[in-house]
Amino acid sequence: MTEFPQIPSKYVFKRLDELTPSRYTSLENGCAYSFLLRQAVVALGPPSRLMPPLSYRNVIGTVIHKVFELVNKKELSPNRNEIKAFWKAEIKRQELKISEEYPALRNVSIVDYSAMFDTIRVVEKLFSVSTVQPKQANTILHPNEHKVKIVGLLSGSIDRVDSLSDGSFRVVDYKSGKVFNDDGSIKEEYIVQLNLYAYLLEEQEKVKVSRLAIIDKTGTCIPVPYHPEKKQEVFNQVKATLERINTAVEQKQPEKLCSSSEDNCRFCQVAHLCKNRIEPQDSPYKIIEGTITSITNDDQLVVSTSNGSLTVAKFRALDLDSAEWASLAGKEAVFVNLFQVIENRLYNRTDNTVIYIKETE
Q: How many independent structural domains does the chain possess?
């Protein structure tokens, strides 16, 4: 029996105890409501399956970061064959996880050999020649994945802390995505993140940070500007963001934090749950919401939406029996990742389409 996940009529939104540097920049530049809604969905547990994998690029980024982390901690050898074995096993694990969470998906594949070999080359480059030659022992325990925290404000994990010859330290962050803007400048969000990590390290360990750097997916070490004079100003900004979000939660008005735009909604995992979503016009993949009014055969559904009736096809691969088809009639449904064939008339189910049934109040 095919199980169609249900979209609940209500969600429980919770206060944020603190932020990570990357979460802070994403909330400032993106949509805070999206983050709160994702948290509410996660709290429902795995059976909810309400966040379809709109893109697998984040999965690849996670695997790359995991390789760097484990090699850094000497839990994975920088040997090419061992990294290949780990990569393939981790990708298979991620594919299995997605398939289990989204049984309606077909042919889940996250194969990216280019990313794997690029990562191997970076590891060989980074760990065959040290980027910093310290003249003193590192006085910080656990310099890799170093935990930092200010209770009630910020917490995080620094990818790497380098000890420098003058007794100061360098904060290093690994990035698997695009580091520079189109004009050649480093993305401001990354500058803020690295500075926040440096501030946290100084506050917690009572040390001096003098340099920041990003190591990108090619293994290039990119210096990042450090602004120690802005420490208190930035801390105050983080506190204000935290208070703004928690006030909206306490007032039961999380929707007022919504910042809908094509850019913010394009890769939002909960766009299909948001009434204020804006669909990117240049994408052939759409979210369709409406009432299933009729079932024409074992391959097509007719859906009544706010813009009129339309047909959704290509369901035969799901192999639904007559009882399963009959159970869909009259249901309020949301279809995520439908391929638009004819505007406002015909849409096809794809291997990445997820079908949700809305829970009645």
A: 3
- Transcribe 67-92 into DSSP letters: HHHHHHTTSS---HHHHHHHHHHHHH
Same structural domain for residues 139 and 112?
no
The total number of residues written for the chain in this structure: 361
CB contact at 8 A, 193 and 179 = no
Reported as a single tens digit per residue, the pLDDT across 36-94 is 999 999 888 765 567 766 567 778 888 998 998 898 888 999 999 999 999 999 999 99
pLDDT, one tens digit per residue, over 130-157 is 444 444 445 677 788 899 999 999 999 9
Q: Does residue 305 lie within any of the structural domains? A: yes
Distance from C-alpha of 12 to C-alpha of 55, rounded to nearest angstrom: 26
Which residue in the block uniquely carries the two structure tokens 């981790």? 90
Domain assignment present for 4 = no
Co-location of 17 and 143 in the same domain = yes
Contacts of 140 (CB under 8 A, 6+ apart): 146, 161, 163, 169, 205, 207
Which one, of 7, 56, 55, 44, lies nearest residue 275 by Cα?
7
Write the burial class of residue 315 (CB in 10 Å: 0-12 exposed, 13-18 middle, 19+ buried).
buried
Range of the domain at 257: 11-31+132-269
Rounded-to-integer distance, Cα 156 and Cα 21, Å: 7
Verify that 223 and 100 share a domain, yes or no.
Answer: no
Statement to judge: residues 227 and 157 lie in one domain: yes
**What's the rounded Cα separation, in Å, for the pair 11 and 322?**
33
How far is 5 from 47, CA to CA, in rounded Å?
8
CA 285 to chain centre: 19
Token code pair at residue 143: 């310099």
Angle between helices 188-205 and 231-250 (to 10 degrees): 100
